[in-house]
Amino acid sequence: MKTNVLFCMIFIFCSLQYFTVVVHSLEYDVGDTKGWVVPQPNASNIYNEWASKKRFQIDDSIRFKYGKDSVMVVSDTDYKACNSTQPIFFSNNGNTIFKLDRSGYFYFISGVSGHCERGQKMIIKVLAVEETSPSGDGNTPSSSGAASISCSSIVPMVLFVVARSAGLL
Ligand SMILES: *[C@@H]1O[C@H](CO)[C@@H](O)[C@H](O)[C@H]1NC(C)=O
Ligand SMILES: *[C@@H]1O[C@H](CO)[C@@H](O)[C@H](O)[C@H]1NC(C)=O
Protein backbone atom coordinates (compact mmCIF):
# COMPACT_ATOMS: atom_id res chain seq x y z
CA MET A 1 0.00 0.00 0.00
CA LYS A 2 2.79 2.41 0.93
CA THR A 3 4.41 1.78 -2.45
CA ASN A 4 1.42 3.36 -4.18
CA VAL A 5 1.82 6.52 -2.16
CA LEU A 6 5.48 6.57 -3.03
CA PHE A 7 4.84 6.12 -6.75
CA CYS A 8 2.38 8.94 -6.51
CA MET A 9 4.98 11.17 -4.89
CA ILE A 10 7.59 10.30 -7.49
CA PHE A 11 5.10 11.05 -10.23
CA ILE A 12 4.26 14.45 -8.72
CA PHE A 13 7.92 15.27 -8.18
CA CYS A 14 8.79 14.41 -11.78
CA SER A 15 5.81 16.34 -13.17
CA LEU A 16 6.78 19.40 -11.16
CA GLN A 17 10.33 19.21 -12.43
CA TYR A 18 9.08 18.89 -16.00
CA PHE A 19 6.72 21.82 -15.45
CA THR A 20 9.41 24.18 -14.13
CA VAL A 21 11.70 23.37 -17.05
CA VAL A 22 9.09 23.84 -19.76
CA VAL A 23 7.36 26.97 -18.45
CA HIS A 24 10.48 28.97 -17.80
CA SER A 25 10.35 31.56 -20.58
CA LEU A 26 9.03 34.91 -19.42
CA GLU A 27 8.12 38.22 -20.98
CA TYR A 28 9.25 41.49 -19.43
CA ASP A 29 7.95 45.01 -20.06
CA VAL A 30 10.97 47.24 -20.56
CA GLY A 31 10.85 50.12 -18.07
CA ASP A 32 7.75 48.55 -16.46
CA THR A 33 4.86 51.04 -16.68
CA LYS A 34 7.00 53.89 -18.05
CA GLY A 35 7.78 52.00 -21.24
CA TRP A 36 10.58 52.90 -23.65
CA VAL A 37 11.00 56.69 -23.41
CA VAL A 38 13.73 59.31 -23.10
CA PRO A 39 14.66 59.24 -19.39
CA GLN A 40 14.44 62.29 -17.11
CA PRO A 41 17.82 64.09 -16.89
CA ASN A 42 18.15 63.02 -13.23
CA ALA A 43 17.55 59.35 -14.05
CA SER A 44 19.47 58.74 -17.26
CA ASN A 45 20.49 55.20 -16.28
CA ILE A 46 16.98 53.85 -15.62
CA TYR A 47 17.05 51.14 -18.29
CA ASN A 48 20.30 49.56 -17.17
CA GLU A 49 19.11 49.76 -13.57
CA TRP A 50 15.89 48.04 -14.63
CA ALA A 51 17.79 45.33 -16.53
CA SER A 52 20.29 44.72 -13.74
CA LYS A 53 17.47 43.65 -11.40
CA LYS A 54 16.32 40.85 -13.74
CA ARG A 55 17.74 37.44 -14.50
CA PHE A 56 17.13 36.99 -18.22
CA GLN A 57 17.23 33.46 -19.61
CA ILE A 58 17.39 32.16 -23.16
CA ASP A 59 13.94 32.34 -24.85
CA ASP A 60 12.65 35.06 -22.53
CA SER A 61 11.17 38.05 -24.37
CA ILE A 62 11.26 41.74 -23.69
CA ARG A 63 8.50 44.09 -24.81
CA PHE A 64 9.13 47.73 -25.69
CA LYS A 65 6.13 50.08 -25.59
CA TYR A 66 6.61 53.55 -27.03
CA GLY A 67 5.12 56.31 -29.13
CA LYS A 68 7.04 58.02 -31.94
CA ASP A 69 10.32 56.25 -31.32
CA SER A 70 12.17 53.08 -32.27
CA VAL A 71 14.18 50.15 -30.95
CA MET A 72 17.49 49.01 -32.36
CA VAL A 73 19.88 46.23 -31.49
CA VAL A 74 23.44 47.33 -32.23
CA SER A 75 27.01 46.18 -31.59
CA ASP A 76 28.73 47.08 -28.32
CA THR A 77 30.86 49.66 -30.17
CA ASP A 78 27.80 51.29 -31.71
CA TYR A 79 26.07 51.19 -28.31
CA LYS A 80 28.89 53.13 -26.68
CA ALA A 81 28.93 55.66 -29.52
CA CYS A 82 25.12 55.83 -29.83
CA ASN A 83 25.68 55.07 -33.49
CA SER A 84 22.42 54.09 -35.19
CA THR A 85 23.74 53.76 -38.76
CA GLN A 86 24.14 49.95 -38.79
CA PRO A 87 21.44 48.32 -36.65
CA ILE A 88 21.37 44.53 -36.34
CA PHE A 89 17.65 44.80 -35.59
CA PHE A 90 15.21 47.66 -36.06
CA SER A 91 11.57 48.17 -35.16
CA ASN A 92 9.35 51.24 -34.85
CA ASN A 93 5.86 49.80 -34.62
CA GLY A 94 5.31 51.02 -31.06
CA ASN A 95 5.04 47.58 -29.49
CA THR A 96 8.18 45.58 -30.14
CA ILE A 97 8.60 42.11 -28.70
CA PHE A 98 12.19 40.98 -28.89
CA LYS A 99 13.10 37.37 -28.15
CA LEU A 100 16.38 36.80 -26.31
CA ASP A 101 17.34 33.75 -28.35
CA ARG A 102 20.90 33.26 -27.12
CA SER A 103 23.02 33.86 -24.05
CA GLY A 104 25.34 36.84 -23.76
CA TYR A 105 24.83 40.54 -24.26
CA PHE A 106 22.25 42.46 -26.30
CA TYR A 107 22.71 46.20 -26.84
CA PHE A 108 19.56 48.27 -27.35
CA ILE A 109 19.33 51.92 -28.32
CA SER A 110 16.64 54.27 -29.54
CA GLY A 111 17.11 55.01 -33.22
CA VAL A 112 15.79 58.57 -32.84
CA SER A 113 18.50 61.18 -33.06
CA GLY A 114 19.60 62.36 -29.61
CA HIS A 115 17.57 59.87 -27.57
CA CYS A 116 20.35 57.35 -26.98
CA GLU A 117 22.67 60.14 -25.82
CA ARG A 118 20.08 61.10 -23.21
CA GLY A 119 19.98 57.59 -21.79
CA GLN A 120 17.41 55.73 -23.88
CA LYS A 121 19.64 52.70 -24.17
CA MET A 122 20.06 49.41 -22.39
CA ILE A 123 22.36 46.42 -22.10
CA ILE A 124 20.73 43.05 -21.46
CA LYS A 125 22.73 40.10 -20.26
CA VAL A 126 21.17 36.71 -20.93
CA LEU A 127 22.44 34.00 -18.64
CA ALA A 128 24.23 31.00 -20.11
CA VAL A 129 22.41 27.66 -19.98
CA GLU A 130 25.00 26.30 -17.53
CA GLU A 131 23.81 28.80 -14.94
CA THR A 132 20.25 27.46 -14.99
CA SER A 133 20.46 23.75 -15.75
CA PRO A 134 23.79 21.92 -15.50
CA SER A 135 23.17 19.32 -18.21
CA GLY A 136 20.98 21.09 -20.81
CA ASP A 137 22.62 22.19 -24.03
CA GLY A 138 20.39 25.05 -25.11
CA ASN A 139 16.86 24.48 -26.28
CA THR A 140 13.81 23.50 -24.26
CA PRO A 141 13.32 19.91 -25.51
CA SER A 142 16.83 18.88 -24.47
CA SER A 143 16.46 20.61 -21.09
CA SER A 144 13.26 18.73 -20.34
CA GLY A 145 15.00 15.57 -21.52
CA ALA A 146 17.65 16.24 -18.91
CA ALA A 147 14.97 16.59 -16.27
CA SER A 148 13.35 13.26 -17.12
CA ILE A 149 16.73 11.54 -17.10
CA SER A 150 17.43 12.74 -13.58
CA CYS A 151 13.92 11.61 -12.59
CA SER A 152 14.31 8.17 -14.09
CA SER A 153 17.58 7.72 -12.22
CA ILE A 154 15.82 8.53 -8.95
CA VAL A 155 13.04 5.96 -9.47
CA PRO A 156 15.21 2.77 -9.27
CA MET A 157 16.93 4.20 -6.20
CA VAL A 158 13.62 4.72 -4.43
CA LEU A 159 12.37 1.28 -5.49
CA PHE A 160 15.50 -0.28 -4.03
CA VAL A 161 14.92 1.44 -0.69
CA VAL A 162 11.27 0.37 -0.70
CA ALA A 163 12.13 -3.24 -1.57
CA ARG A 164 14.70 -3.34 1.20
CA SER A 165 12.42 -1.96 3.86
CA ALA A 166 9.74 -4.45 2.76
CA GLY A 167 12.23 -7.22 3.36
CA LEU A 168 12.42 -8.34 -0.28
CA LEU A 169 16.19 -7.93 -0.58
C1 LIG B 1 13.56 63.52 -11.33
O1 LIG B 1 12.93 64.76 -11.53
C2 LIG B 1 11.52 64.67 -11.66
C3 LIG B 1 10.96 66.06 -11.97
O2 LIG B 1 11.89 66.82 -12.63
C4 LIG B 1 10.93 64.12 -10.35
O3 LIG B 1 9.53 64.00 -10.48
C5 LIG B 1 11.54 62.78 -10.05
O4 LIG B 1 11.10 62.30 -8.80
C6 LIG B 1 13.07 62.87 -10.05
N1 LIG B 1 13.59 61.54 -9.92
C7 LIG B 1 14.62 61.22 -9.13
C8 LIG B 1 15.06 59.80 -9.16
O5 LIG B 1 15.19 62.04 -8.43
C1 LIG C 1 28.91 54.99 -37.13
O1 LIG C 1 29.44 53.80 -37.67
C2 LIG C 1 29.77 53.89 -39.03
C3 LIG C 1 30.21 52.51 -39.48
O2 LIG C 1 31.14 51.93 -38.60
C4 LIG C 1 30.86 54.93 -39.21
O3 LIG C 1 31.17 55.05 -40.58
C5 LIG C 1 30.36 56.28 -38.68
O4 LIG C 1 31.39 57.23 -38.76
C6 LIG C 1 29.90 56.13 -37.26
N1 LIG C 1 29.29 57.37 -36.83
C7 LIG C 1 29.57 57.93 -35.65
C8 LIG C 1 28.82 59.18 -35.33
O5 LIG C 1 30.37 57.45 -34.85
From TrEMBL:
One GO molecular-function entry: electron transfer activity
- Record localization: Endomembrane system; Membrane
Q: Which Pfam families match?
A: Cu_bind_like
Topological type in the membrane: Lipid-anchor; GPI-anchor
Which residues fall in a coiled-coil region? none
Instruction: Please state every residue range assigned to the domain named Phytocyanin.
Output: 26-128
One GO cellular component assignment for this chain's record is: endomembrane system
Kindly indicate where the leader peptide sits in this chain.
1-25
- Show the Gene3D superfamilies listed in the entry: Cupredoxins - blue copper proteins (2.60.40.420)
Per the similarity annotation, which family is this? Belongs to the early nodulin-like (ENODL) family.
Q: Which UniProt keywords apply?
A: Disulfide bond, Glycoprotein, GPI-anchor, Lipoprotein, Membrane, Signal
Q: Which SUPFAM superfamilies match?
A: Cupredoxins (SSF49503)
Q: What is this protein called?
A: Phytocyanin domain-containing protein
Keyword flag NAD: no
Keyword Lipoprotein in record: yes
Quote the InterPro entries the UniProt record gives. Cupredoxin (IPR008972), ENL_dom (IPR041846), Phytocyanin-like (IPR039391), Phytocyanin_dom (IPR003245)
